[in-house]
Queue: 3 jobs
Job 1
Amino acid sequence: MNNTSCPRVSFDFTGRFLPPVFILVFIIGLVANGWGLKSLLQNWRKLNIINVFVLNLGLADILYLLTLPFLVAYYLNKSTWIFGDVFCKMTRFCFNLNLYGSIGFLTCISVYRYLAIVHPVRVMGRLTVTYSVAISVMVWLTVAVQSLPDMFYTKTYRNKPGKCYDTTHKLYVEDYLKYSLGWTLTGFCIPLLITLGCYGHVIVVFCCKNPTHIELKRRSLKLLFILILLFSVCYIPYHVFKNLNLWSRVLDKQKICMKWSNGVYIAHQISRGLVCLNSALNPLVYLHVNEEIPAQLRQLLQRARQMFNCLFLYNSDSEPAAQTADQVQQELSF
């Protein structure tokens, strides 16, 4: 739709919305991932196949979380980037490594669950820790190769000093849209279809064969729920609105104004906040695959409850003494 007056895009929404989300994700994600990685590394000799993927998932989260303070400073400073072009690209590169690395390792966990449940005899003795380490290296290399072209797009621009684009400048937005669509297909859609296929077959097996392993069924369904949560909340909205926003920018460059451009921009910024939540939600996988972590969590909550009860009892016992002291002071004042 051609219009002489295009709707104003609320660019200031980003500076109001993203910093609180980044701060919250940084605190929760750093504590949760740090604790989960510590629990895994304490028993690194007992690492099994699936824990290797979870370990790499946590490393991808930590890598991204360490860049969040710089992004918070950027958006709080009215979108003025003061850390240089190279570090801007490295920050965006770490985000992509975290995003597509997380999707890759979650897909690996899904495939492993599928093979262990549907084809246990065929894979018996073939799936080893060494094999999972080799797959993890392949995932890192694949994600790095997919993310590398993004580094060659302009992230800062001389005519707009201080900017650090999460995509690129409008001069190159047409090419970036094509790259983004291909990246979405290979880095998101294909892993999503693999994950859905694996768990769809697992559910069919559970329904048809009615296995006696109730605990295995419960754990598999729990992991399926976690993956549905991650994909539906974090990954799907981000990829949909990222590409829609790029398309809106292409139309705007061609002087074609769309009424929905501002709504798509705001939705894209919200999806950016949601996608970074994966670094705070991924630790849910720790609770699923490592049986010791839930026990440690219950023990920690029990200790916290005991400390709270002791503090409450101490305050209750000290109140009469404080009241007596007040009464004595009042009597002496007379």
Job 2
Amino acid sequence: MVPIRLSLAPLALALAVSASAPALAQEPAGAPPRPPARIEVGGEGTAFRAPDLAVTQLTVLRDAPTAAEATKQASEAVGAVATAMAEFGVEKRDLQTAGFQISPQYQTDNRQDGQQSPPKIVGYEVRNTLSVKVRDLSKLGEIMDRAVKLGVNEGGSIRFEIADPADVSKEARRLAVADARARAETLADASGQKLGRVLVIQDGAARAEPMPPVPLMEMKMAASARSDSMAVETGENAVRAEVRIVYEMAD
């Protein structure tokens, strides 16, 4: 009879794998702790400054039978305004042509048969716009008076700006960060936790928000009704900043 030999190795290996399976499913010893909770908040800040720069749009409108004549009249008037600006200390770099437009003027006549004749050109309108930066705001009223006297007769506006907003932008950002932290502290306190260190700060671009342009001709008509020079009030401009901050939460 041939002897029968039994091998226990496969059985032993299966038992070893089975016994170790639960251990492998558990977290290994010494695993790093779970990261603390985070909170992300946004903050806004607004700083105010009196403007120190005015940008005006001065438009001359002229009409004539020919485009050349209308262009000549408008150009002469704008040239007179530009020349006069030197008397108030306005430099050449602060003068710029902001618009030039030629528009034909049409006329239609009623014929005896009741129909309208084809439109025909009877003249031309020319609008020439000069942009002027005024850095000495104490002279702004006089400048506007002179411009109107020299032929500025349509539209026009004044927009007040901050020439160098760097400092006021910094202040707006500081206010935005303080606002974000105050919001985060409120939320953390409500949840029974405390703020930890700052993990991320995202800076939104600070933006200046000048006051809407002031219509020039309306200001001039109001001044004419009072028989005095044009009064100009500068007020304040706002610069706004936004940030987003991620804080670590602590128990």
Job 3
Amino acid sequence: MRGYIDLYYMIGNKIYVIDYKSSSKFSKKDLPKKSMQLILYAMYLKEKYPDKIIEYVAFDMCKYMKNANGTLIERNKINDLNEYERAIVKIKYTKRLEQQLIDFVVDTVNQIKQLDFNDKSDWCKNDDKSNQFFCKTLCSHYKAACSRLNNS
């Protein structure tokens, strides 16, 4: 696995993990799945710094500000920024979230193992527009096989 932590910092014996989101906004129901990225970073930092405590992980929703009611509003639609605060979405780091991430990774690996390595249609989902970014950008298999399949 490979990941890039946007920011982490330590104050005393506590570590804080921040991931900057420059344009995306997601609903509360999507938060558990989206937060898995942060939990993965926190687990790595916990292993790297075993004497430190991970208090929380957070998304910094850079495009937005938060009003007094907690509603996220795009920065470019706000006249007086002094009436708003930064849109930071904090997630308390827990053992339960750690276990959820472990279960998710194990389940995903098991699903991958069930696929036929030689069946390109299992790997190159060119009909699914939502996953094309991930395939083209992150998948090492794409350049070797999927680009040939998509061009034929």
